[in-house]
Design goal:
It is an enzyme of class 3 (hydrolase). This protein is of the alpha/beta class. The protein is built from 3 helices and 5 strands. Helices cover 46% and strands 22% of the residues.
Length: 129
């Protein structure tokens, strides 16, 4: 992860939980908050409800690898906290990668597309065009 750093401190996670927004799908929950830098910071949490330590670490590695592969789709200047849900331990790598991609599309890429489309509509409706 070249453009990303890790969230490590408890207060950083709590700040994202308290001030940020969240969204979820079947396998993951994403909490996100705009930060004051051009870097994306990522934190991953997997509770004991997911499974024993081997399973939890496997889930973390799969999420990290998914984020590494989808790095160009990560928004700049955000703190992202990914939380694995209880059924996530049985999910394979491709399922987790599609869950990560789904949450990124749902929260960041549609907003960009909608704002650019509304700008384009406004320009075409001006008199004299």
């Amino acid at each position: 992860m070249n453009r990303t750093q890790a969230l490590k401190k408890n207060r950083e996670f709590r700040r994202v939980y308290q001030l940020g927004k969240s969204t979820a799908n079947r396998n993951l929950v994403l909490h996100y908050l705009k930060n004051q830098t051009d870097e994306t910071r990522v934190g991953i949490t997997v509770s004991k409800k997911v499974g024993k330590s081997v399973v939890r670490n496997l889930v973390k590695r799969r999420i990290k690898e998914s984020l590494r592969e989808l790095e160009e789709k990560l928004p700049l200047g955000y703190d992202l906290v990914w939380i694995a849900r209880a059924g996530c331990g049985e999910a394979d790598y491709h399922t987790l990668k599609s869950a990560v991609a789904h949450l990124l599309r749902k929260n960041f890429h549609q907003k960009r597309l909608q704002s650019s489309q509304s700008k384009n509509r406004g320009e075409s409706q001006k008199p004299g065009n």
